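Hi V.,

You were right to ask for the full record rather than a summary. Here it is.
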Amino acid sequence: MSDVHTFAGGPLDRASHLRTNSEWLSTQLADPASRIVPLWKQQPLVTRRRDGIGWLSPVDLADYLSSGVPTIFLGNDNDGIAHFAIDITVFEEANKSEPFIQVGRFMDLRSIALQLPLGDPSTLGTAKAILDWNARHGFCAVCGNKTEMRDAGYMRKCSDDTCNAEHFPRTDPVVIMLAVRGDQCLVGRQAMFPQHMYSCLAGFVEPGENIEEAVRREIMEEAGIKVGDVSYHSTQPWPWPSSLMIGCFAEAESEEITIDGLELEEARWVSRSVLRDVLNGATDQGVLLPPPMAIGFQLIKAFAEMD
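Predicted structure:
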């Protein structure tokens, strides 16, 4: 599991066959042995030492559970103990003090991810993505009537019996790619990036495209570089709000850069030797890389380490 990206490699058995078993779910939500992580304003509870998820028992959360706030089933651990997530934002929006401060703190997942044990960011990423999806889909996209949560949070159904439409969480595929040419790779920066930070180019896969086509189109659109062969590296779930980053290398067939001025503020070719210096801590190259939890960093690192 050492090669699994942050936000992947979750330890729980998702046990999707149990999501429709309302009797079993109710029993687990009444069992003091079950574990529940609350999220407040999209931020999960982590321990006071920031070394793990701030799991609570149904007893700790009895008032929230009885109020009917959104609760989703995350899965079972190796001992068969059920794990859930609950969104307490609405319940606590009038509360000026942060709840459960004696247990831990509610923290931004992106800021805490690298401090958590392997697998915890995946569990919290799932919780965040599914709860966020439920919060965004309170009305039917077909007829406009209210929807109701079903299948332990993994489906919403239209409340209008004449419509009866079912809605499921979506995952948006995003290609993130490093164009390479000989000993160099193409990196770019957006205006929002910290000064001197560069990363891989990226973009959403459009309907009717395969991964290779999306890679070639995005690199051409953003940097004016023609690309030939495309090879797959790895993927990373990215719960902002719910994407799957598909990491690729792309063989560039041209070198002259023409940025679009929309997605990118700047793009440049960087040599493997420069990247190695940066990875070894050099600060005089005018290049900063994204944080290690990002698949963009891992793609650049993999290229720098190639012989």
